[in-house]
Every structure is written in C-alpha cells, then in structure tokens.
Amino acid sequence: MAITQDTVKYVAHLARIDLKPKELEKLSQQLQEILGFIDKLKKVDIKDIAPTSHILPLNNVLRDDKPGESLSSAQALENAPQRQGKFFSVPKVIE
Hints:
Layout: H1 5-14, H2 21-42, H3 73-76, E1 83-84, E2 87-88
Helix pairs in contact: 1-2
C-alpha cells in the first residue's frame, strides 16, 4: 500500500492537524518507510520460533500495600479554586 501526500493530507484533515508542505512530504515519506519495513517483517519465516511476549524475563516490582496517612478534607481542598462545603466544585459540562 502506497502512502501518498494526498492520503496524509486527508488523514491530517480528519485529525484537525495543520501540516506545512515540508512536514507533509516528510511524514508521507516516513510512513511509506514504516510500511516498507512491515512488509519486510511479513516475509520473515517464524514458523519454528516459539511465541513470547518479552525477550527478557519480566518481574513486576511492587511495594507492599500498607495503609498510611491521608489528607484531611481541609488539606485536600486547601488549593481548590472553587469548593462547596467539603467538596470540590467544578463547572457543569454538557455537550
């Protein structure tokens, strides 16, 4: 699949991104190179390779979940631009 400047311009319009002509040319070239690399990867024979999610062993480093001190309502609301009683007050958003 070829990525033309018209395709990139169309997608940029859909994403509401304003691209200058030099950016349009560079981006379309980069996307074409990416697709070319993906085509190379599709040609690689991987039938004898076992599936893996990572090439290295992966261990999560987690701390013990111990309850600690938390902020009081007054401390949490200390820098709030608007508040109503013990709660944050935010503007209503309806679209």
